[in-house]
Model the fold of this input.
Amino acid sequence: MPKLYVFAIGGTGSRVLKSLTMLLASGVSTGYEIVPIILDPDSSAADVAKTEQLLNEYRNINKSVAPSSEKMFFKNKMESLGEVIGAVGANALGSEFRLGIGGLNGGKFKDFIDYNLLEDGGSNQALIDVLFSESNLNLDLEVGFQGNPNIGSIVLNKFTESEEFNHFANSFNGNDRIFIISSIFGGTGAAGFPLILKNIRQGLVNGKNYDHLRNAVVGAITVMPYFKLDGDNTDNIQSSTFYSKTKAALHYYHKNISSSKDINALYYIADDNNNVYKNVVGGVGQKNDSHFVELAAALAIVDFANDDSLSTNGGYAQNPKYKEFGVNDLSASNPVITFKDLAQETQNQIQLNLTQLLFFSLYLENEINEKLKAPFAKESSPVIDQNFLSSIFYGKLVGFLDQYRIWLAEMKRNKISFSPYNIHEIIDNQGSVIGLKPQNDDLMQLVSGINQRSSMFKLFQEKSYDLMTSTLNESRKEKYATVENKLMTQFHDATAKVITKYLF
Done:
């Protein structure tokens, strides 16, 4: 299977990657093995750590399931760069999805560029003083570039010279693709995107020529401002600078990327809703709720992967495409998005898959312990029993699905609100979302704005889980390679039958 290398730059990159992982878990198809590469100088960033943990959980579940069909949850293969290069005989980098940036071990920017080693008062030091302010030079890189792309461009150049980037170039094949996720209004993403793209199009990595890399099909999502930060003008990062940075970056991208045909498909997305996040400069305190913009940005990756018309010749993109994401009419006073507010193509991509995974999650949470004697569990081989429900695999699966429900609940309470389901958020004492609860026990009333099709279904009121069980029992004579494979296949088939018959 060809590989899609996804460079997720900065905090926004990681959050979009999180949404992509949820789409893959639900069964959305890309046709590529996904190789996530997280680039973030903030080693303690909470959002990045959460995404990295989620990627590891997804990969482990996918390997245990050993997908044998296109109609399964967790079917899309995912590997780290370390695993990929290990498979071709290079030195493995381990199983982490986040890659280090050479020479960056915290400290101040002036230490990174060896400012103090320059001749005191000499011409080189004087030039540095002209290019960078005192606050720039004393910037603590422990928590990233803090909205300074001029600093980010210098530091991230080290990554393109690194052993890790060299391994990426060696592992890349002619049928593989590349996608770059970055924001345009901060420091890390705005600097990282053009640098990585430039090095790919040059096809020159550490003195080696890579023609297949130079002619790669490359896509990118440019995430423009979609939130604001609280605080005042003494903070290092200020919302008031987001739009000016965005305009400057867009002008640069037009002149140096679009006009030179460096990119095959460039996606734009933004939101002008006044969503306000707490102004935390990196670290473990930077925890933002998931946002619909991140889900829409993840859909750009799916769109790119499934577009067979993209090609590159001589290092130039042939007939490049530029796309924006939009929704149907949205009330400014009540900015809530349901499935019906999405374009039909987007509805077709996600509404069935996301609903199937939610049905699956709720059934495992509320019903399966009571249904181990049902035909689907005990008659088809291998059996689903209490030993399986106590297994490490099942524990990891339940943990992932917990995160899926949190993801949906966070998007519901965010602004704009993505609220396709009739659910309540479950909040802890610190105000964090820890789960969701359906507004009632009838699964057929779970989807917002969708009425069940059959009036005969009234027989199942308050017992909609029983309909799921009876549909699962239709597979009682089937045999599966493993119990993990059985669980994913049975529930994918059953949820699809129930939802398409009674809802969509």
Remarks:
- The chain has a mean pLDDT of 85.
- DSSP finds 18 helices and 16 strands in the chain.
- The two ends are 32 Å apart (CA to CA).
- The chain has two domains: 3-103+147-326, 344-502.
